[in-house]
Amino acid sequence: MCGACSSFLDNLFAKGILHATGVDGLYARGGRFEAVIEGIDALISNFGAKDGAEVIRFPPGMNLSLFQKSGYMKSFPQLAGTVHSFAGSERDHLLLLDRIHNGEKWTDGQEATEIALTPAACYPLYPIVAQRGKLPSGGLLFDVQSYCFRHEPSKDPARMQMFRMREFVRIGPPETVTSFRQDWLDRGREFAGALGLPFEIDVANDPFFGRSGRMMASSQRELGLKFELLVPIEDADKPTACQSFNYHQDHFGSLWGIQTAADEVAHTACVGFGMERLALALFKHHGLDTDGWPSSVRAALQF
């Protein structure tokens, strides 16, 4: 598989679609790549326009204390990232410079700031909703986006460490939330069809950590809480998740104290779009020259 990954990645580098930084999974994006991202973003907006979601755009970092409360470290410690900064004296600074000059490890003296790297676009949303108080009748719908970080370096270009995620997030009574997810399972098929991509939708699980995590993953699959729209990018036998359809039940509602209009714990669901993965799927299946892409796909992307 690695040879195939390198081949596609090398071609992306050669065409200036992506640019290497020396770190696996961390790439600069060229103009053609960003044009495709903009087209995907516009298409997502078109598919969700009728719903009237409230738009919120998040920075790539979130409040560290809220990140800690979210429980992400309990489930996914292997993926998490935090922001650290120098907080020493002048003497400490001189020692730091000496270590850098001598090629020694110099990050030990840094301390954690109040910022964690955002792991998923919806994570900063729930505390904001909780601060607003009880939900209106029927709940709320949000359109959120963020650059996200997950520490899983790989030469597979579809497994980036920093990437953009756009989500529609529904918060409200269980029947409203589950109906939302089912509707987007249908829309997801239409969305991938508009992009001319081969795909399948299958039950999935999150990469929970450790032995207890394996039990949580099994339960998640058995309950059908997560589905993914899979597109072959590097390996036809192991297609890549480009969209996800998640039902969290009352997990986030209980965690953040979000109440429905009927004074019940709110349920949540989200549909997530991996922006970079969708762009890579398009380059993989339609070629590296966007001028040669099918007219229907170019029209969908407003090229």
TrEMBL record:
Residues in coiled coil: none
CDD domains: Gly_His_Pro_Ser_Thr_tRS_core
Matching InterPro entries: aa-tRNA-synth_II/BPL/LPL
Taxonomic superkingdom: Bacteria
Gene3D superfamilies assigned to the protein according to its UniProt record, in alphabetical order: Bira Bifunctional Protein, Domain 2
Keywords: Ligase
Example of a GO MF term: ligase activity
Protein's name in the database: Amino acid--[acyl-carrier-protein] ligase
Species for this entry: Methylocystis iwaonis
